[in-house]
Amino acid sequence: MARRYDSSTTTFSPEGRLHQVEYAIEAINNAGTCVGILARDGIVMASERRITSGLLAPAKTSEKTYKLCPHAACNVAGLTADANILIDQARLRAGRYHYQYQEPIPVEQLVEHVCNYKQSYTQYGGLRPFGVAFLFAGYDEKHGFQLYQSDPSGNYSGWKATVIGANNQAGKSLLKSEYGSSSAEMADEGEETSPDVAGALRLAVKVLNKTMDGTAAAAEKMELFTMTLDESSEVVHHILTQKEAQEVIDQVEAETASAGDS
Amino acid sequence: MSILEYNGAAMIAMAGKDCVGIAADRRLGIQAQTVSTDFTKVFKMNDTIHVGLGGLATDVQTLHNILKFRMGLYELREEREMTPQVFSHLLSTLLYEKRFGPYFVEPIVAGLDAKTNKPFLSSMDLIGAPVQTKDFVVSGTCTGNLYGMCETLYKPDLEPDALFETLAQALLASVDRDALSGWGGVVHIITKDGVTTRELKGRQD
Questions:
Q1: % of residues, chain A, pLDDT over 70
Q2: Lower CB count within 10 Å: N or C terminus of chain B?
Q3: A168: which residues sit within 8 A by CB, 6+ positions away?
């Protein structure tokens, strides 16, 4: 039934669905997982590094984490070629906003711009949608640290913690139970409070362990990114070194081992 | 009236021993009337590149913002810092793109090659014709004076402190005979260890 209504992006099916957009979302469910977690003092984005062949030259740059401007970065899940176009769009938009207003672009505006661009490929032109989902991490003066997720439809929303890519449902269910609920973070009434960046890193690794289950957790298989403020209130983008990543992995291993004993 | 002489400027960049210096006056005028005595014409683009923009003030500021934008994009895409040579070339092509409606600015670029620490100097006209030199470059409303002073005072391989003295004296003496430039000066000396900035006080007229 869907067959007649799924070859054109710009056609609704009788059930009111855009099949091409849904197929694009499917494409992303085969991509490397990305976890994003909003912490009290920053944001953590962790992704699975998929090495598809031993013959591939070692990557000189990340293929998951991209800086968009001094105060925003994103993680990609999906078709890298599609992502490159959108990342460039985002960088240009942020640069032009800053040129015009001599102020950094508010994070949500940057996200909305990329999403509007994605949306136009679901309504005009007969071109296929972008097969990319993003996690956007950014900081602005008005709203502090923010985490957004966007998909091929051009829809976006702000999250405290979320997962995109392969096995994202498993990741999300783990976040639902674990985010803000570790004893160190509980407020008196048992309300959920956010972790700090160190805690968020450990939680992110835990999530990746679950979504990547079957493969042993190793520093080369993960890319851990943090966004924080330094003493002069400048935004710091940091991709953890192998050594730093291994430390987090070891901490998580120790935690799960001791949790198992108690 | 020449549009390039509407606001007034004087700037010099000079090469020393593993260092460069760039200096400019502080005047902003509207023809004869002086409007500001702390107008910035030399801009730090990154740790190794300074650019001096002399000419119509609105274009000085616009060009600075455009260069910041372009440098930012370069660093995001290439994940590395721009070198002085690349920057100079970018500026040249930027200016030529406006060949038939140009920015009224005649810039000078002063930089240090990050790896070799060798000085880099270039200057260009308002449509981007570049010139690279080993000794000094000048720009502004009193280039005749500036060339004369530099040619007389310049010596190759000056240490940073001597370079500062030479730059300062050359600038101060040149602007005194030019009504449109002066009202103080700024000198930046760039070495691999950082940038030292000093203000100059000359004739306040």
A1: 93
A2: N
A3: A29, A33, A211
Contact partners, residue A191, CB within 8 Å, separation at least 6: none
pLDDT at A183: 43
Place of tokens 């949608």: A129
The rounded distance, in Å, linking the Cα atoms of B181 and B178 is: 6
ipTM metric: 0.90
Residue type, B27: R
Name the minimum distance, in Å, from the CA of B67 to any CA of chain A: 10
Residues 6+ apart with CB under 8 A from A222: A46, A47, A48, A49, A205, A208, A245, A249
Contact A221, A49 (CB under 8 A): yes
CA distances from A237 to A44, A140, A234, B48 (A): 10, 14, 10, 22
In angstroms, rounded to a whole number, what is the distance separating the alpha carbons of residues A35 and A86? Answer: 20
Tell me which amino acid residue A10 is: T
Per-window interface: B 55-74 vs A, CB < 8 A: 65-66, 68-69, 72-73
Minimal Cβ distance to A67: which of B68, B69, B76: B76
Q: Which residue is it, tokens 């990050």?
A: B114
Digits of tens for pLDDT over chain A (262 positions)?
567 777 777 788 899 888 888 999 999 999 999 999 999 999 999 999 888 888 988 878 888 999 999 999 999 999 999 999 999 999 999 999 999 999 999 999 999 999 999 999 988 888 889 999 999 999 999 999 999 999 999 999 999 999 999 999 999 999 999 997 654 444 455 456 789 999 999 999 999 999 997 777 788 889 999 999 999 999 999 999 999 999 999 999 998 888 766 5
Q: Are A147 and A36 within 8 A, CB to CB?
A: yes
- For residue B81, the distance in angstroms to the closest alpha carbon of chain A comes to 14
Confidence class for position B168, pLDDT limits 50, 70, 90: very high
Residue A83 and residue A47: Cα distance in Å, rounded?
A: 15
3-state helix, strand, coil in chain A (%, to 5): 40, 25, 40
> What pLDDT was estimated at residue A199?
94
Tokens matching residue A96: 């032009």
Mutant choice from B73, B75, B76, B94 vs A, greatest count of A C-beta within 10 A: B76
Of all residues in chain B, what percent are helix, strand and coil, respectively (each to 5)? 35, 35, 35
| Alpha-carbon torsion angle A85, A86, A91, A93, nearest 10 | 120
Residue linked to tokens 């002085």: B84
Q: B101 pairs with which residues across the strands? A: none
Phi, psi of B33 (to 5 degrees): -75, 125
